Amino acid sequence: MKLLRIIGLILFFSGLLLFSILPLFKRTFYLTPCALEHVLSEQEKENLLAELIPLTHIKHQQLFSFANKIIRIHQQKNALLKKQKQWDKVMWDSSQEFAYKLLRVSVKNDSFKIRWSIFFIILVACPLGGLLYILSSDKKRQSNYFTFFLPITSVKWIAYILTAWLLAFYILLYWFPAYIINWVVLVDPISKFLNGNEAGPWFLYGFLYSVVMCVMGIKMFLKYKNNAYQMIRTISVLFFQLAFAFLIPEILVRLNKPYMDLKNIWPLDYDFFFEWNIQTLIENGTLGIFMLLWGILLVVIAVPVFTYFFGKRWYCSWVCGCGGLAETLGDPFRHLSNKNIKSWKLERWIIYPTVLFSIIMTVLTLYTFFSKQNEFLGLNTYEIQKVYGFLIGSVFAGVIGTGLYPVFGNRVWCRFGCPLAAYMGIIQRFKSRFRITTNGNQCISCGNCSTYCEMGIDVRWYAQRGQSIVRASCVGCGICANVCPRGVLKLENSDEHTRYNKNPLIIQKEGVHLVKNT
Q1: Alpha-carbon distance 106 to 31, whole Å?
Q2: Mean pLDDT (whole number) for 405-433
Q3: What Å distances lie between residue 119 and 192, 295, 377, CA to CA?
Q4: Which residues of 31-64 are buried (b: 16+ CB within 10 A; e: fewer)?
Q5: Sign (positive or negative) of CA dihedral 34, 36, 39, 42
Q6: Are 361 and 431 in contact (CB under 8 A)?
Q7: How far apart are the first and last CA of the chain?
């Protein structure tokens, strides 16, 4: 078994290393005037065609050099247009996105053997190595036994290396897509099989996201094999990620229908009410109208109704893609969430203003859609959308939310930034049947429940006092109940009026005493 673990580690790190340095590999890019005519918009042809022609009919071997030439041409032309105040000619797409578009049509395919060799080493050997390591580990390694001793889960040197890698990956994905063209081309065969088109950066991300969740989901099955709740919950998040978030949207594209993740809900899906999305759905007839109504009904009816009966766990721990990644890839880091009062206060001071920000942005967006006016009360709709997309949609949800798993735990985004989690949390806190009940006289104050609470709730504080846990931030993952050695905790859906039980047992400095229920 030890040999298999070593082989697994070698396969995994070999694949990860090759994937990491793939953008540095030489690749032939050959741009033609015909490709420019096909890919450039009329505005781009007018502004840039003359400057780009000298780059055609030349074999470019260096990705970064070729990309930077295109970026420089785009930036210089834009700067000139802005200086001359020719605002109608300014190209508002980022230079990186423009460069990616030209690189995409300039890629010359590798030979069949080379392409599939690299594909196998990275996208087959890497997950296979991870699976070998997981399956060959003993029970102690599959459990929480080594959590505070392994460098990767105890914020030691390897945790910082992993954090740096994740941060770099997300930064490249969001803002430097031109530099990851070698990654994107790698999954072209899968993309063409599913949707009939060449892959893009977000197809690559969706594919990697799904693969990682599946591999780490197997680890969850082994770790919690004696807990039916955790097994079913893991199956659920894997199903919704693979079917609703990855496969169905790609199949819709193949059928020339709108791309839509049917489980993504506003305000998490913050651009759902953007003008381009509404217009796209309306233009696609009956199916598009259904998708638009579906998205609205999810927000207005499904979220409050399901949260009333089941708490926010129905979405955050059973359906959501962000939660799915947090519960699989992020499971080894759940103990790193901060439990002190300052973190709780910071949580409230960040997450609710984020909800307000998303509401203001959406109100402005709908005002602009119906009135065709870009400004309201001095606020420019498109500027607000741009700021929200950058700060919340990219920096917070992606770079910080996932990139900092190995340092701050697996629910940074869900706890501090997700506006949908906050919306459901308000309902859960004040109008829901969900609670975690405690049997205080059985609690031995071991602290396992608090340690492994990914949302930073001091569960032990409630258990010692025999109080039911009714917190807006609780996602109902059930790990606190799983790690409790005495069965003190239980997830329940019952009469909402009995959630705030009288304390049957009070533990204070002055001593321990019983309180009679009235």
Answers
A1: 5
A2: 95
A3: 15, 37, 53
A4: beeeebeebbeeebeebbeeebeebeeeebeebe
A5: negative
A6: no
A7: 59
Distance from C-alpha of 501 to C-alpha of 483, rounded to nearest angstrom: 24
Q: For residue 40, give Cα distances in angstroms to 28, 58, 78, 319, 467.
A: 21, 19, 15, 39, 64
Residues 94-112: pLDDT tens digits?
A: 999 999 999 999 987 654 4
What distance in Å separates the CA atoms of residue 349 and residue 344, rounded to the nearest whole number? 9
Supply the DSSP string of 105-137, one letter for each residue. HHBPPPPHHHHHHHHHIIIIIHHHHHHHHHHTS
pLDDT of 350-403, one tens digit each? 999 999 999 999 999 999 999 989 888 888 999 999 999 999 999 999 999 999
**In residues, how long is the chain?**
518
- Segment (H or E) for 60: strand 59-60
Six-digit token string for 49: 């065609």
DSSP 31: -
Which domains does the chain show, CATH number per domain?
29-106 (no CATH), 155-432 (no CATH), 434-518 (3.30.70.20)
CB 427 within 8 A of CB 465: no
Tokens standing for residue 258: 């709108």
Q: Tokens 């090759």 identify what position?
A: 18
